[in-house]
Write a structure and sequence with these properties.
three-stranded parallel beta sheet, globular, alpha/beta
Amino acid sequence: MSGYPKFYIINEPIEDFPLYGEFSHSEIWVEIETPNGIQTIKYSGNQSVASGFIVDDPKNPIYGNLIIVKIMQDSAITDTQKSNLDITEIYVLDTNRVNVLNQLNDTYQSLGQIKLPGTSTEWVDTNIGYDPLGPNSNSVTNTLLGSVGIDFRENLPHENGNLLNPEIDLYRFVASDIFIDSTSNDTYTIFDDGTSLTFYKVDGEDTLVMEQGAELEIRNVEETDGLGQPPLLSPGFR
């Protein structure tokens, strides 16, 4: 079977606030071929407190740390998942698919200490305080895509996953303009999307490939304390 691995972005509405509008959580899903059939890898940013993961050094007393969960689903993406989560395929050249998956996974592994490695649900503690306004799950999606040269803002989910339907509005993906760094030597593509992006620097000698006209603010990771949340956000915000 050709055309694998296949890459997707998902949209999961979180909450609708009178003052802030509806927020969305994004994830990257990848379908892969295995001897046992098609399986799905899910990369998802989250907060450690609400998701029940214990971190050694929580930077945020309310939400804990930003973590990245990697789940192996023992099947292909279902039709119900596609319609409920607006799962939309991201175009990747056939000749690049394996390399993109390898780089995506390398970036995931470099973003922190891996917990429960090799299990169906492993995760990474980024040691960065989670903040509903960022860094958050959409920052993780933006970082993973940027590490393989894919622009989040040019690959938004479409309603019901159908490219003929409207895109989900970018404003709902709060903090999708943030990149998070690792301790490794990373390469990220910074696209010119008409807005200034933010890069939270951790360590390593990074390469930032800037499109002409792109704007980027570089901050030390200590500049986010995870306490910038707007009022009345529930503990389950991702």
